[in-house]
Write the structure tokens for this entry.
Amino acid sequence: MKKNGNVSNDCCENSIVPKLIITSNSGKNTAGGGGLTFVEDMGDDRHLIEYKLVISIYQNETLIYMDNRAYWTRLIAERGSRIQHQVPQEVIETLVKLSLEEYFKRMK
């Protein structure tokens, strides 16, 4: 598989291309609803945020390894409010470490 047009043509023979994809799923924060109980609207919103790190390793412009790792976090916010959330540095470092550890295991 060759590199796509989004990757710079001037990179070296061996390159690592990281890509962080952030997605969220938002909705009303509710409780209950199991069995015979009613679903209760808690009056705020819940946000499930996924951080997915995709690492591609190329050798001579040919993809030799691709891995993706994900981390989920949950936030509760006032109904209808706009949220701002920064990806914790520890999360990024852990995702990179796990992905590269898997690559080096396979290269042995």
About this structure: The chain has a mean pLDDT of 84. The longest helix spans residues 89-107. The longest strand covers residues 39-59.
